[in-house]
Amino acid sequence: MKTTTTWKSGETFTSTCRQSSIEIDGAIGFNPKALLLSGLAGCSGIDVVMILEKMRVPFSRLTIDVEAEQTEEIPKVFKNITITFHIKTDPANSDKVQKAVDLSLEKYCGVAIMLKKNSAIISKLDIQPE
């Protein structure tokens, strides 16, 4: 895996990976730490979707909120990370959805595994009936 990040001006950079790019900005928009949280959501979300598809669990919506508490001292690093999965599915599927989330965060999502080396990750599940 390789990315190339190019300074534009001020605190703004453009980072490219394969054929996609994203803007990083220290003042507005996505800063590096927000990208890390988005990376956690994306990594785990991909796993959850793939696992649920293999389990044949139907769902119509998945939204993932990630919040991090930071230390007070510099460098400010994440202490606790809370990841909440909001999924629209039949409540009867809640055990299977929880299993998919647990498998992702404990076994498959490399971003979660890396972050856990420094920060506690707390997961929450919000089942929204179809």
Description:
- The chain has helices spanning 32-55, 94-108, 110-116; strands spanning 4-9, 12-17, 20-25, 61-70, 78-88, 120-128.
- It folds into 2 domains: 1-30, no CATH class; 32-128, GMP Synthetase, Chain A, domain 3, CATH 3.30.300.20.
- The protein is of the alpha+beta class and 130 residues long.
- The radius of gyration is 17 Å and the shape is globular.
- The strands form 2 sheets. It has a 3-stranded antiparallel beta sheet, with no helix packed on it. Strands 4-5-6 form a 3-stranded mixed beta sheet, covered by helices on one side.
What are its keywords?
2 domains, three-stranded antiparallel sheet, 6 strands, 130 residues, three-stranded mixed sheet, alpha+beta, 3 helices, single chain, GMP Synthetase, Chain A, domain 3
- Return the average pLDDT rounded to an integer: 96
Count of strand segments: 6
Largest sheet strand order: 1-2-3
Rough outline: globular
- Named CATH topology of the largest domain: GMP Synthetase, Chain A, domain 3
Radius of gyration: 17 Å
What share of the residues lie within helices? 25-40%
Q: pLDDT under 50 segments (min length 5)?
A: none
Main sheet attributes: strand count, strand direction, barrel closure: 3 strands, antiparallel
Can you summarize this structure?
The chain has about 130 residues and is of the alpha+beta class. It has three helices and six strands; from the N terminus they run βββαββααβ.
Topology readout:
Blueprint: E1 4-9, E2 12-17, E3 20-25, H1 32-55, E4 61-70, E5 78-88, H2 94-108, H3 110-116, E6 120-128
Parallel strand pairs: 5-6
Antiparallel strand pairs: 1-2, 2-3, 4-5
